[in-house]
Structures are given as structure tokens and as C-alpha cells.
Amino acid sequence: MLLDFHDRLRIAGLRVSLNEWLTLMCGLSKHIGTLDIDQFYSFARLCLVKNEALYDRFDQVFSDYWSGRAQQFDELIAALDKNVPEHWLKQLDYTALNEEQRQQVEALGGWEKLMQTLAKRLEEQNEAHQGGSKWIGTGGTSAFGQGGFNPEGVRIGSGPKRQGRAVKVWEQRRYKDLDGHQEIGARNFKMALRKLRKLARDGRADTLDLPTTIRKTANNAGLLDIHMRAERRNAIKVLLLIDIGGSMDYHAQLSEILFTAARSEFKRLDTYWFHNFVYERVWQDNARRHTVQTPTTELIRTFGRDHRLIIVGDATMSPYEISVAGGSVEHWNEEAGAVWLKRLQQAFPHCVWLNPESADWWHTTPSIRMTRQLMNDRMFPLTVDGLQAAIGCLKTPMTLPVPVQ
Amino acid sequence: MSQISQNEASPSTYITTDELQQAIDAALTLERPLLIKGEPGTGKTELAREVARRLGAPLHAWHIKSTTRAQQGLYEYDAVSRLRDSQLGDQRVADISHYIIRGVLWDAFVSDTRCVVLIDEIDKADIEFPNDLLLELDRMAFDVYETRETISAKLRPLVIITSNNEKELPDAFLRRCFFHYISFPDRATMQRIVESHYPAIKQDLLSSALEVFFDLRDVPGLKKKPSTSEMLDWLKLLIADDLPAEALKADNVRTVLPRMHGALLKNEQDIHLFERLVFLHKQQEKKAR
């Protein structure tokens, strides 16, 4: 019966492993989380869900699975203790009642009568009760109470140990806010960028190389022979080109986060800015962008092929700005933007384009489609997942189909 | 039924939810490590101390830094001392076990009573750190290569691991743990927490302080929302100054910020943001009149 629950969890994208499932079963057989369905809920979540971002999804599956069959839970737990015949378990799937039980309910006069009797007994009873077969309480066979054996019984309230609220915990969806693929922060970006690390020892030898020192000392008949070596540093070099102004204003905050993350993560980072598309000039200082500019050819000359090129831009513009000479909105460009992009790609084959625009809308904008084609599909959304994919892509160089002069 | 409530003779200031209680019971019964996440200041580290206290078990705390390596929790071989001793001709140098320094897990494993191990802020360490501990936490045993012995746990300790979510933990590691997320306490729970810490607090002061506190948490765009520990610090200040409840009411506040706000808001930008919001709010009220 519970295997169906397992399947549903997996379908919902919760990667429940066999090991975790067996832990849950092992716990149930030791009577953990068997007191009532609230306990079962929290124990199952404890075993199966390992990220609070997935709590909401678990709540949904749980609620979907148990809605309308919460009563069956008690039977399931009772079944754990006894070796029940197979057909009884099977039957649970179809109906909660067998003929005899149905007759018992009928004997009380049907559903409405059941509710009336309940109200009456609630009035009569004025103390806590457990066990027995008439009064409302836990663990009995009366139709009223919880944790009992009457399948169509009415479940009543809760002691201090239970979570019996009107709305079930999993139905409140308390963890809705935690579910998010767009959880973005400088820290997450840093973690993604860190994958681009290439640790190398270069520079001054300033830390003690203990293994070599020990080995050399041993070779030296026990006389100290100290060896030093350089510290391991991140040797990756990154060239960051960021689109600024115009439609990028909407994404300013996102670009800022990426910029902050990149600056603290890479010691060798050079950042230049451009507007809409890369042409013959870029600049480093936005305040003096019209006076102090750097020719793109200088970038290509200055930085080696081992630099990783990351272009950040929404690529949202008129297609002419990419494909036609003189198409730029700001100045007269002698050569088309596409030519300059190809030159950059040739100079820095390890390159990607990060697009802050949501990937769902890329196909609707012609200039994004064009840029993506020019980048050989090496365009990724500026999300944590996208950045991770981009970093993976940066490890291999891009192959250029047509050489450009 | 609940194992950790057995030893509840001494008064406690730590309030657990049923879910958390069950998580600890499950971790004790099934002998799995328990991974605790939650907002900073919701008492993750405090939990381990409290569990140890209630079980009457010794606590072995291992606080993780960015430079911590997994090996340090097991043992370290102090090669430099041995080198120095060998230069000085010390007799100790002949026995390598003199230079093995025990780590937290070693101490916990050889303990005669069941103990609680706290691995605090595991996400601070390198990305590979949890993977290096997989086998040790699974088998509760490890080898000492220098002396060729195996240290295995006499009684499997209860391992409580806390994380602040700064790094994703590897899947293989997560699969071996129980996971519990301490959600932020609701108003009623918060009241219980405060009352357990300051039993003598005046009810009117508490309720107006709670009001200010939860309002403050609702302010959109705060970089660091005040949490339980900040609330407790703030109340300590309020009680120390013996402020009446009226001092916290919005009408009587001469400055825009609640009294002693330094305990609640710890970020300059947050204070500015809060001031601006209060200012806007007052202007709207004026217009409405």
C-alpha cells in the first residue's frame, strides 16, 4: 500500500532512495511515527526529504495521497503488528470497509445516526478515556476517537503530544516560500563560480612543505632540511563583459550580484562594460564611458587565450544591431556586432553568454535567437542552475565553424 | 515513550516542538545522524547542548571552520613535535603514539557512556568535507594508519549536525542522515520560549514586545530578519532597563525606532530601510487625517 506513496513521491521529483525508504520501514517496525498520522507525517519527512526547499512538494504529495484515506492509516499501523493476510491489505486499496464492518456501522443506524450518537456521547462523557469499546478516546474499538480499529470511526481531537489542528500540517503548506529554483544570492553564485577553480601553485614559496621536509630530513639522516613551497591559489583568469543600460536596467540587481560574487571569487578578474552588443570599443568606468574607452582589439591582444570569457547581457535589441554594420543605436559601427563577437570567440574559445532574461521567453525575441546561434547554444539563463551549466560549459573550448579575418 | 524527556527533573529553557522531539527520538532509536537546518538564531547549536543535558550524556562539540579538514575530527599526527624531539634526542620519539592527537570523534567513540556529538556548521567547511566523513559516520569506526589500529565506537553516539545552508551538502551524505528544518517559531511558541527564559517578565511588556518583533519580521526587504536569539537579547535589555510596556507602543515612541533596536537590527541598511518605511507610514497617516 505504501509503495504507491513511494512511487508518487518519485514522480513528484523527490529522489527517495531505497535506503531511505528502508530506514522509514525500519523505523515504523520499531514503532516510530506510528501513533497517529501526524507523527507518521513528520517521521516520513524526516527520513525521506533532505532539503527544506522540497518540504512543500512533499506536503502536496502527502496531502494528495492521504486525503480521503486518513482512516486507513490506523489499519495500516495495526497491520504492522499482526501478520495480516494479503487479501486484507489489498482490500485496503479498494474500500475501507468489509461487509461485516459495514454491518456494524449500519447496526448503529447509518452515518447520520453515527454523528448523532457521537454528539450525545460527547455530552455524556466528561473525562479522558483510553481503550474500551464505548467511550470516546484513543486506542479502542469504539466508533469515536483516534488510533482505534473502527475503520469508519470519527476522529476526534488531540492530546498535547499531537498536532491535531483543524487543518493538517501538510495541508497548510507552511514551507511554500522555501521552494524556489530562483533562490539567488551572491553566496549561491560564489558557490557556482567556485567550480571554475583551477588551483595551482605559483608565486613566492612561503608555506612549509611538510611532506617534502619530512622526507628530505629522513634522507638527511635526521638533520632538519626545511622545504618551502608556494600556496595553492586559484589560477583561473576571467574576463567579464557586462551589458549595461537600456533594457538591462531591469536586471541591474542580478548583474550586480553576479559581479560581486565574481569579484570576490577570482583574483584575476577583468571587467568591461558594453551597451547592447559588443562592438569595437568597451569601457571599464561607467561614469566616463564616453571619454575613456578600450578598443576591443586591445582586449584581444592583452588577454591570453587561457582567459575564460563570460558575457552578460539580455541580447534584447533590434536584430540589425547584431548583423549590420552601422546598426548600433549609439554610434556608427564600421563592422557588424556579429563580427566582433566572432573575433572575441576566436580569441577566447572558452566563452559563454549569460542571459538574465527568463529562458522561457528566449524564443520570442529574434535577437536572442540570433545571439544564441552565434554562441553555438552556449547561452545560459542567469540563475544558479544556469550559472552551474555555464561553468560546466566553460571547461571545454568552443569550436568555431567558420574562421573570420 | 519519549526517550529524551526522561531526565526532565532540572528546569529547561529550551522549547522543542513535537516534530523536533520526534526527530531526536528517531535518531536515537535508529542510530542515524540528525542534520538540523534553520534560520540563524533558531537554536540549532543549543539543541545539541539541550539533548546532551537531558540525556545526561557528555557532549563532544566540533565547531567547523572553513579550514577544518575531516581528518582533524579523527586524529592528527603531530610530525613537527616528533621532528623536534628527534633533534633534541628525546626518548619519547621512539613511540609514534605519543604524537597522535585525538580528535573529537575519537574521544566520542571511546567514551564508555553514550555521548552526543555536535558537528556545528558543517557547511562552513570545504565542499568535500561531508564526503570525507561518510564512512566514519556510517561504520562509526576509523583506522589509525600510523599505529595500525582501528578505533570503533563502543556505543554509537548520537550525532547532531547543524548547517546554515551556505553550501549544498552532497547527496550521499544527506541520504545517511535524518533531516529536520527548524521553522521559525510562531507567536505562541515564541511566547513559551520567552517565558521559559524570563519567567518574571511582565505580561503587557511581553505582548507589546512580541508585537513589535513580529511586525519587524514582516518588514519586506530586510537583509537579516531578527530571530529568536535576537529577541531574547532585546528583551534582556528591556528588562534590565525596567521599561514599561507603554514605552514600546507606537504613539509614545519619540524616535522612529523601537527602543534598543541595536539588538534587533544588525545591519545599517536595514535600519535605514526601517526608518524610511516608518516615515512613509507616518506621512500616509497624516494625509489620511
Summarize the structure.
The complex is a heterodimer of chains A (405) and B (289). With 405 residues, chain A is α/β, with parallel strands linked by helices.
Task: Give an account of the 3D structure.
The complex is a heterodimer of chains A (405) and B (289). Chain A is an alpha/beta fold and 405 residues long. Chain A has three domains: 2-178, no CATH class; 204-233, no CATH class; 236-394, Rossmann fold (3-Layer(aba) Sandwich). Chain A is 41% helix and 13% strand. Chain A contains 17 helices and eleven strands. Chain A has helices at residues 2-11, 18-29, 37-48, 55-66, 72-81, 86-94, 99-107, 110-124, 169-172, 186-194, 210-219, 252-265, 296-302, 320-323, 337-347, 366-374, 384-394; strands at residues 137-138, 145-146, 199-208, 228-234, 237-243, 268-274, 281-282, 294-295, 308-312, 351-355, 379-381. In chain A, strand 10 (351-355), helix 16 and strand 11 (379-381) form a beta-alpha-beta unit. With 289 residues, chain B is α/β, with parallel strands linked by helices. Helices cover 43% and strands 14% of the residues of chain B. Chain B contains twelve helices and nine strands. Chain B has helices spanning 18-30, 44-55, 70-74, 79-88, 104-109, 129-132, 134-139, 171-175, 187-197, 203-218, 228-241, 268-288, and strands at 34-38, 59-63, 75-77, 100-102, 116-120, 141-144, 149-152, 158-163, 178-182. In chain B, the strands form three sheets. Chain B has a five-stranded parallel sheet. In chain B, strands 3-4 form a two-stranded antiparallel sheet. Chain B has a two-stranded antiparallel sheet with strand order 6-7. In chain B, helix 9 packs across helix 10 (203-218). The termini of chain B are far apart. In chain B, 30% of the residues are buried. Mean pLDDT of chain B is 81; it is low at 1-10.
